[in-house]
Amino acid sequence: MAITDLRSFLTMLEKENELVRVQDSVSREFEIAGYVRKSSDAEGPALLFENIQGSDIPVLGAIYNNRRLMLKALQTNEENAVEDFLMAMKNLSEPVLNTSGPCKDVVYIGDEATLDKLPIPICSELDSGPFITAGVAISKDIEDGGKNASIYRFENDPNGSVLLRLFKATFSRAEKSAFPWCRRCWPVCHRISSAAGKIRGQKYTDCALIYAGHQNGYRC
Prior knowledge:
By secondary structure, the protein is of the alpha+beta class. Helices cover 29% and strands 19% of the residues. A four-stranded antiparallel β-sheet has the order 4-5-6-7. Strands 1-2-3 form a three-stranded mixed β-sheet.
């Protein structure tokens, strides 16, 4: 079965008994993360939570919680994974711009476009709020146009912003090149982050940045 999108992947997983539909009512505070962690520890199936308290939007988790599911998503196997990956990297498809698609079935504009509509889980009792745990940030250097794509934890802030935590010690060369503004604002960000940590009884040594949701970059 060819995988063309997330929905076709879920259809395949369900046919192979690799997807469990959780129909019991669950809270996004700790419960979803608990289920996902248990499935991950047991190298179990993906989980589709269909009854989230306070939301009519389902939550999908644990779809890549083990190597077996990851290989299924890439439509390969242990024996051919490396060769298939290298072949794919050598034969990249050109991006196609579409004006419509399933991702536009529901559209919110202006003040209605808020992450508060999504049932973003709170994973740990020490987290300061709900986090998108594997969000992809596509950034562009406002000075030289350099681009970068990297994964961060995004915290949904009540004021409409999204908080990112960037660890200075783990910046790659590409990230340092793509984020020159972080070098400029690091001393200020470090002080803000450290102060916030003291208030919450925690110690931070990273850079706390706030993405304001516009194209003019980031602000500390």
